[in-house]
Specification:
This protein is mainly alpha-helical and 116 residues long. It is 70% helix and 3% strand. The protein contains six helices and two strands, in the order αβααβααα. Helix 2 runs antiparallel to helix 3. 27% of the residues are buried.
Length: 116
């Protein structure tokens, strides 16, 4: 458990970091079997805008959309494989913090609005 927490902290402290990077890293963590509870908390803090959405990196909307679709697909596969109702519930809670997807331009515009 300490390894995923330190990994998250290291990633969040990178000099260049965006929501796209976070979504891709969450998908990788899920695929590698990391504890969904930590991924949920990570995504929840992001959804509450307590974590930086864009720092020293200009994300193209299509890349953000791709990262979001990758994460939602990864979560959907995880839900289908869930053997335990608690795991399935954590997957649903993670999905609730990712958004419905498909509109990277709108998300990027929100980021720019927050920054200025």
């Amino acid at each position: 458990d300490a390894s995923i927490v330190s990994k998250i902290v290291d990633l969040e402290n990178k000099s260049s970091w965006t929501l796209m990077h976070r979504f891709n890293s969450c998908a990788e963590a899920i695929q590698s079997g990391d504890d969904l509870r930590y991924v949920y908390v990570w995504l929840r803090f992001s959804a509450l805008r307590q974590l930086t959405w864009q720092r020293h990196y200009n994300t193209q909307p299509r890349h953000l959309t791709g990262a979001q679709e990758n994460l939602t697909s990864t979560l959907a596969r995880q839900f289908a494989r869930a053997k335990d109702p608690i795991e399935a519930q954590y997957v649903r809670m993670c999905l609730a913090n990712v958004g419905k997807g498909g509109n990277g331009q709108r998300i990027r515009d929100d980021i720019l609005h927050i920054m200025h």
